[in-house]
UniProtKB/TrEMBL annotation:
SUPFAM superfamilies: Multidrug resistance efflux transporter EmrE. Pfam families: SLC35F. It is a multi-pass membrane protein. It comes from Chiloscyllium punctatum (Brownbanded bambooshark). The chain crosses the membrane at residues 89-109, 121-143, 177-195, 207-226, 232-251, 258-279, 291-315, 327-346, 352-372, 379-401. This is EamA domain-containing protein. It comes from the Eukaryota. It is found in: Membrane.
Amino acid sequence: SDISLHLNQLKYLSPPPSEDQQCSRSFMDVKAASNGVSTIEDRILRITGYYGYYPGYSSHQREEASENRTENINPDNNVKTRCQTCTSAFFKIFWGFLVILSVSSSWVGTTQIVKVTYKNFHCPFFMTWFSTNWNIMFFPVYYSGHLASAQEKQTLIKKIRECSRIFGEEGLTLRLFLKRTAPFSILWTLTNYLYLLALKKLTATDVSALFCCNKAFVFLLSWIVLKDKFMGVRIVAAIMAITGIVMMAYADGFHGDSIIGVALVVGSASTSALYKVLFKMFLGSANFGEAAYFISTLGFFNLIFISSAPVILYFTKVEYWSSFSALPWGYLCGVAGLWLAFNILVNVGVVLTYPILISIGTVLSVPGNAAVDLMKHEVIFSMVRLTATTIICIGFLLMLLPEEWDEITLRFINRLKEKKNEDQTEDTTESSVHTRSRSRANGTVSIPLA
């Protein structure tokens, strides 16, 4: 009763509404009835006689204001987001070019220094063992970069515990150290040892080109062992790699050092592919810190358990040198340092840029070695060797195509066709308008057939 009395008082105190206001009020009352009970703010506006109002007026005003605000903010945010995306893509491409040059130059430098070292010192296993020991420095280099760049710095013990999870939740134990590190260390040593042996038989260009076949071997093993997706283009690339291997062996008539050198490089590429497939199978995808920790453990395993092999080779005079002072320490340290730099760049490059650029840097070592062989060693390449090298490099590049390359290509072709049709339509429209205007000026009307 009190509420009704207050409503009657407000009704008599407020000025009488006009006809337009009455129509508006009746329309809004119907709208309010259809929409249900209004909010408290809507009731107050109705009671106080605000007739230019409809239920939900305040809420609609707030929604419109928020929409206007988002419209005013969203363009700036979109522009900022696009600028940040473009900037990050630019920096990734910039770092990618630097990584490409660094990867290719480090691999070319390693191969060429080995060739120079062989003139006075031919001990490939000792060189492999000495270079692998430098892998111990991989994790200290990574931790130094972490201290220099990370905002939240971690202690060395905490970082080691975090990165050792690549071996499991328990971390690195003696059993896991022997079980997981031993096979990978053996494959690592075999890959490098066979590669260095092949450099004694073939030129640096041939060896680096044949080693690019490891990409095809990785695909075949992943398809068979890991049940990866079948891709016809990669089968074609694998066939091209095998064709290049046969042509390279045929270049000297399937005899002499050529066929032995080709077999050694193919063995090196095979063990490298097996190493990568087993790493993916047992250890999965590791981040940069875990990869650095794992490679450092390979260096420790090499130092502890494989150090006996060079000693045995020395006393059996398979790899013999007169004294330690006669060793070419400068060349040995150069090979080991460039090899370590190559492994670091390959792992760092995945973080800084696109992984495909690292693979391109690897295949660019082939023309790099060819340029050095031509200018410094005056190597003459036959047509068969050049053709085989080209086929292997093309196969390597085909391996870099993504899994959805066919869909991406079809989409790109369809867009080009649509754009071409739009351009033809615009040209037809402009020509028809021009024809009509000219015919009107001459006093005639013509209808274009197009």
